[in-house]
Amino acid sequence: MSFEWPRMHKWEENIEREVTEGVEERVTEHYGVDDIADLTEAQLDEIEKWREEHVSEYSPMNWGFSNLINNWEMAQEEQDD
What we know:
By secondary structure, the chain is an all-alpha fold. It has one domain (8-80). It contains three helices and no strands. It has helices spanning 8-31, 41-54, 61-80. Helix 2 runs antiparallel to helix 3 (61-80). The chain is elongated. It starts with 7 loop residues before the first helix and ends with a helix. 11% of the residues are buried.
């Protein structure tokens, strides 16, 4: 019987969720905000700059930072509406 891994995508989703939650927790604690939507654009720029300088493009942590940035942008769009 050949190797199989049914529903491996569930493992991937769990890993991505854990990484995203970890990144969001670290960022909100650092900046003293309750939600990532409360970050300023300058703070988000600082996070993006730090990511570029310190996180390998192959690091799974990039999922968390990408999700944080996307979630922040969506929150800003909702506030503008």
